[in-house]
Specification:
This protein is mainly alpha-helical. The chain is 78% helix and 0% strand. Helix 1 crosses helix 16, helix 8 runs parallel beside helix 16 and helix 11 packs antiparallel against helix 12. The longest helix has 35 residues. The chain is globular, with a radius of gyration of 25 Å. The termini are far apart.
């Protein structure tokens, strides 16, 4: 009896906090930030308590529940101590006493524990190690050693200022990003994700790769607003992966397709899993310029996936099924229109000069009005509404907590200057050789991004690695896009491939095997970032002539096709793999004359390969 009463109280508190978080997000998106301190710190408190209560509902372990209670007390005390001096902190005239220092330290420990609860051990360990480094880094060896930071200075920066936990990333998330979390949850409430999968099946039904191609389309469409590759895998994968397996694709291939396609949603405009708005904020480059720059590489990424999937399907004994006759009801057709109109509303509002948060609110309003007009039954479905509020509230809470941990990392890196020293070390190792710098940068980005969601991965990586590329003369948008791509691709790169690991259980496949297969499928995605450094006109809107951009698009498109085909060569044509890869290198990394020669040879190779296909293969 006591246990059930406790669960009921916890559930009620979760709903109350979720309603509070969603309500604040909607208010801020329309009326703006009412107070920097109260918004940032208050959202961390509400989000942290929401994470704690959600974990407490699931936990049966008394020791775990005790740890959750201690975390709640630590967070509450540290936030109370912040609010006591909020006005002085905003003016920069507050000096810490010993109580402040210990309360700040409790707050940081609580944030790290909440991060572990939200996204696992990797991100929490990164924040904890960086915090320890900030405290004891003066004893570190070599270039890692810093001059030493007092505990008072460390707490001032990390907790009692707008440079650490409550810094710029937190401000961007609570004032701009969270409305798009609400938008994604609303689309799920309206079952638009299911309709998008059916649309993708209808569009790709005549292809031999059928459901695998459909998963690519559906995951790309929904992934741009979901904000998380793992959430996208879980959301659309439960529908697409069984269909892919039913066609005859191996389980690991089915998991790999869903993981690679879901990850690509984070680099697809107009929302890019909310990274587009953070990138615009960090770079001071207009949001629409970011979208224009991201458009062609995203299309090339998905084009490469399509070619790789089709090439793999040629060599598999797939089940021949009647082409699916997907019929849509008028309601489903209008649901698709709701999705399109909502995204268009966001873009048009941004073009009109409104803030990203207000544009997100317009998207939410359009989706709600149009969606409930065709699904009036949902207005009275209390369970569906409660699920929507829980989902939006919890995902928002987790993101706020994670960004708090990112603030710890950013604060320490800025305070110690280790990020700039790391950039200098990379430049020294590469000896000003751009290609070597890029390769080292790519490996470092994959390493730093492993186990992290897109937003914190991007923020941490660009702070540590960005200065290295800019020192070599790479434009700022190209630098940030390069970092973003490898941060996103870390979700499918072993050994910590979160998206692939999420897809593997759904497919009944090996997690590591799925990750390796996903990396193979998405191999062009690992090359495209190098392409827009060496062919900078590939990023539209960055100041290059249209003719030069068209030339760059042609070269990289041919290279993408060659690499994708080389990953899954036709039976008996493995000897063409090194030729294809060599031509791809020539198309991307060399000058205009060499690239045009390679383009002609690539087209000739494709024509020759097509001519050798037997009539039977053509039919299949």
């Amino acid at each position: 009896m006591f246990r059930s009463n406790t669960s009921a109280v916890a559930e009620g508190a979760v709903l109350l906090l979720s309603f509070l978080v969603v309500g604040v997000v909607l208010y801020v998106s329309v009326f703006g930030v009412f107070s920097d301190s109260y918004l940032r710190v208050g959202m961390l408190l509400a989000g942290g308590l929401l994470v704690i209560l959600t974990a407490a509902k699931r936990s049966e372990n008394p020791f775990d529940r005790a740890l959750l209670a201690l975390t709640a007390v630590a967070l509450g005390l540290s936030v109370y101590q912040y609010f006591r001096a909020a006005e002085e902190i905003e003016t920069g005239l507050y000096f810490l006493n010993s109580t402040d220092i210990w309360m700040g330290l409790l707050g940081l420990v609580a944030v790290i524990e909440l991060t572990r609860r939200s996204v696992g051990l990797v991100m929490a360990m990164v924040a904890a190690i960086v915090l320890v480094y900030g405290t004891f880094g003066n004893f570190a060896p070599g270039f890692l050693r810093h001059a030493g930071v007092s505990l008072e200075e460390l707490m001032t920066v990390l907790w009692f200022s707008f440079d650490g936990v409550f810094g710029r990333p937190m401000a961007t998330v609570v004032s701009t990003i969270l409305i798009f979390i609400v938008f994604g949850a609303l689309l799920e409430l309206l079952a638009i994700d299911v309709v998008l999968v059916r649309l993708a099946l209808a569009a790709t039904g005549r292809m031999r790769s059928g459901p695998a191609a459909a998963a690519t389309v559906a995951s790309g469409l929904f992934g741009t607003v979901s904000g998380s590759a793992v959430a996208n895998v879980v959301g659309t994968g439960v529908i697409t992966i069984p269909l892919i397996k039913k066609r005859g694709f191996p389980p690991r291939f089915a998991a790999a397709v869903e993981a690679a396609a879901s990850s690509g949603g984070q680099i697809t405009p107009p929302i890019m899993g909310a990274v587009a708005f953070i990138m615009a904020e960090v770079t001071n480059v207009p949001y629409l310029t970011i979208c224009a720059a991201a458009a062609i590489p995203a299309l090339l990424y998905y084009g490469g996936l399509f070619v790789a999937i089709s090439s793999a399907a040629r060599n598999m004994d797939l089940t021949e099924e009647a082409k699916p006759k997907v019929k849509f009801t008028w309601r489903e057709l209008v649901q698709m229109l709701v999705f399109v109109i909502s995204l268009a509303g966001i873009v048009v509002t941004m073009v009109g000069g409104a803030s990203p948060a207000y544009a997100g609110f317009i998207g939410v309003a359009l989706a709600a009005v149009l969606g409930f007009a065709i699904r009036p039954d949902l207005l009275l479905n209390v369970q569906a509404w409660l699920q929507f509020v829980r989902s939006a509230g919890l995902i928002s809470a987790q993101l706020v907590v994670i960004v708090g941990a990112v603030g710890i990392v950013i604060g320490v890196l800025n305070l110690t200057g280790v990020g700039l020293r790391f950039a200098s070390l990379l430049s020294t190792l590469a000896e000003d050789q751009l290609i070597l710098s890029l390769i080292l940068m790519a490996f470092a980005c994959l390493l730093l991004g492993m186990g992290m969601p897109t937003v914190p991965a991007y923020l941490i990586i660009v702070l540590v690695m960005g200065p290295s590329l800019q020192k070599l003369g790479v434009p700022i948008v190209h630098t940030h896009m390069f970092v973003l791509y490898f941060g996103v691709l870390s979700a499918i790169t072993p050994p910590v491939a979160l998206a692939a690991f999420a897809a593997a259980p759904i497919a009944g496949a090996s997690p590591m095997g799925s990750a390796l297969e996903a990396s193979r499928l998405a191999l062009p995605g690992f090359v495209i970032p190098f392409a827009f450094i060496y062919k900078p006109a590939l990023l539209l809107g960055t100041g290059y002539p249209v003719l030069q951009s068209g030339e760059a698009i042609l070269f990289v498109l041919l290279a993408t096709i060659l690499i994708s085909r080389a990953c899954y060569p036709r039976r008996g044509q493995a000897y063409l793999v090194p030729v294809s890869l060599a031509l791809a290198v020539g198309l991307i990394f060399f000058g205009t004359i060499v690239s045009w020669v390679c383009a002609a040879l690539a087209l000739g190779l494709m024509f020759l390969e097509r001519a050798q296909i037997s009539p039977r293969t053509k039919v299949s």
